[in-house]
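Standup notes
- DV: blocked on the single-chain target, sequence here:
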Amino acid sequence: MSLVLLLSGCAGQKAFTAAARAGDTVALPLGWSKNLTRQNTTVVITGANAATYTYAPNDPSVRAIANLYPDPVSRLVVGTETNQSLGVNANLYGASLESSVTNNDKDLSQTMLVLNLPATLAVGAASIVVKDQAGNSVTAAPITLDILAGTGGANPFQQNNTSATLSAEMIANLERADARTVTFSGSAVPYGIQIELTRTAGVGKPWVVNPRGDIKNLAWSDDGATLRILLTPANGVNLTQLANFKFYVAGGVTGLTVSSLKAFDANGNAVSGIVPQIN
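- DV (later): unblocked, structure below
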């Protein structure tokens, strides 16, 4: 993930491999925490001869849009959380990312697009623009790729004894399932938050996800109609940003609504003004 992070932090972007043949499968780094799926993403590819190819949402040539996360014991994570260089200025990179890129959110997901190039793409410099549902480019500049002479081929991502259908599903299974994001705002940062969410009874099977288990604990239960979630710091280190209380609710549940919330400080005293949002 840290490689993607560095690649996507520049004004211009390159694919993981700087060159490919027409028809090849390539991986493109799109940057931090992009709200993209194959269902809402458009890809526009322009060849060296100015020919343009547009992949509309759900185009089968868009193989997957998946998120990558850093190794929990990567230098980036450990150096940022302990404020140590670890020989590669890890703390400086982490601090810069959180202040200038992630808005103090430690959910360091990086979005990767896996794409089949058009078979008739001209030899030479090609540019790729990835657009979100609103039609906006998700990168500061087009992604560039040198197209080499020769005939390429789409990667089947196939293992032994797997069918073509199963192989196609393998990489798609890395994509994010439908989920709701729960975040908090307020003027103070509490020690912990207890929140209850009602949901449509009998619809879906909830799965509550903590994006950074190394910095906060998340305990949850579900009785079929109400989710109860308790968020507290991990390892005795209090959270310093409300952004880091964020969590996800997946599993096909509907009708998610906040029914109660209690925020408290380290002594158990109530902290007021904490407002939840479900997106």
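- Follow-up: The CA atoms of residues 66 and 153 lie 21 Å apart.
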